[in-house]
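Quick illustration for those who missed Monday's session on complexes.
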Amino acid sequence: MLKKLLKLLLLLLLLLLSIVLFNTFTYKSKQLDVQLLPEEAVSDEAVQHLSEAVQIKTVSYDDASRFDSASFTKFLSYLSETYPLCDSLLEKTLVNGFSLLYKWTGSDPSLSPVILLGHMDVVPAGDDPNEKWTHPPFSGKIENGFVWGRGSLDDKVNVIGILETAEQFLKEGKKPKRTVYFAFGHDEEIGGRAGAVKIAELLESQKVKAEFLLDEGLLITRGIVPGIQRPVALIGITEKGYLSLELSIEMEGGHSSMPPKETPVGILSAAVSKLEKDPFNPRISAPVQEFLAHVGPEMPFFSKMAFANQWLFSGVIIGKYQKTEAGSAIVQTTTAPTIFKSGVKDNVLPMRASAVVNFRILPGESISSVTEHVKKAIGDERVKISVYGHSNEPSPVSDVNSPGFIAIRKSVGEVFDSTITAPSLVVGATDARHYTKVTSNAFRFVPVIALPEDLKRLHGTNERISIENFKDCIRFYRRLLINCGEK
Ligand SMILES: [Zn+2]
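Prediction with zinc ion bound:
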């Protein structure tokens, strides 16, 4: 009997092993077969333009009273003077005073248009004396093969890169097949409500339905995807939703010498603690599934085996993601208590306590499902829950078989040597989320190469871009203007 059982077990194991191996060996690469093109010349003038653009302090502050309209006006004039052909030959609209929309009519009116996004504003820099910049943040210094300064990567590289490309095309008398819009917002860093939202509304009112749009988001990474030595161009196909909830409680006040058993501070603290102890379920969402399907076949054997057999190894994969905060953000809706307020005097019991918790919602979940989870986790009717500030649902997931996605991948392959391309999930927020009514295919990718240490420079100190990389961005946009015309 025991022998029979052992035999059966062995047979089952063999069957399991053959399924695992079969799936691994038939796990086919999804990479496109693209020929690297000879490097096109890009003038050093373009680099000079990026440096000059960085020198104009188009800073977005949370405090709206600090908005410096003169700097933004100066930036707009700078673009007009530097790109005279774009200024005169394309249809240009100033949106809500400071945002820009260009329309470049294509040669084939039967094709739906494309929108290239960028933002002209930057986050503050140099306000904090602890920030130690090698070169002043708005110097635009060109040194040792880099352009230094706030905005060089985020996101003036795109605005300048796109306009350089278009100006050159116009000089050469070329035009794209598809109509191409350039949409440059002026307040992306504080939510995009005065810029991107208004541009998107204008396009909607004109009944524009774009084939796809390309905005910032992810980059070409090196040494960031474990097990892969080659550069990986990550193209965001969706972004997480955004929700902040205010938890508040009101009770009778009193003197701290005769406190009641429960106080607003105590009840609220317990509520926040319960939330932290009851995290959202980790799982592999649709965009992450796509990511795994694109990088998996390029991985060393054992990782490849795990990715090819997610029915068996999904727990292991999720566990790996959960080892870091950055990884956890990819596999679950995150919970981050950000504001906690109560009390004014040490001997007075406060009547009110409030806290704000920020959630970044994984595709497949929603504002209402997150709110439900929060209510259940806290389980205390005394704690009032309300939406705080602006919120948005996770963005729709864009189609990885659409012409736009293929054009982006092809352009990457033609410019960047032996680079893998893969769709992925953006955990932050971009202007692209405001365009869901204008296109169902929004992609989020900047053709910039980032090493792990470079990621700290975004919104941090010593932001910079290498001259070669900036020139490659322009080469990428040139190819994209051509490749996006293919049906
Ligand atoms: Zn940005």
